[in-house]
Amino acid sequence: MRRILLDRAGPRTICQVLLVLVMSMMMISTVTAAPGGSKSGRVQRTGNERCWVTPDPVNDGQQYTVFGSGFTTGQAVSIFVGDGSILMGVSDNLGVFSAWDWASFRSPASITVNVYPSGDRKMTLLATCSFQANGSAQ
Fold this sequence. Notes:
With 138 residues, the chain is of the alpha+beta class. It has helices spanning 2-8, 11-33; strands at 50-54, 58-59, 63-69, 76-81, 85-90, 97-102, 109-117, 127-135. Helix content is 22%, strand content 36%.
């Protein structure tokens, strides 16, 4: 049976069939590897994104952590804290991320945190929260 198939299909035909199979497998793996199965480049929101900071309030020089939940699995985020700090994070398989920094807030203030998708030129706001900074002791 094998000899009959090889006799009918020449080496060129076999190579063409193998090429088509390999290309098909590569295309399928590319589509399944895309985040959320979408290659549109648009931000896919869940509508449940939220963030919070602990501890609240935070003292100058103290470590604080920004947490987020409700994000798309594997979502890379840029976290803008106040006017200067930018933290980075990636959500896990539950849609949760965390990122920390040392507080450098010299004066008491309410600090706003904005979470955007990393690399999004349109700066699509995914979540916002705030916390209280006590400032440094005088």
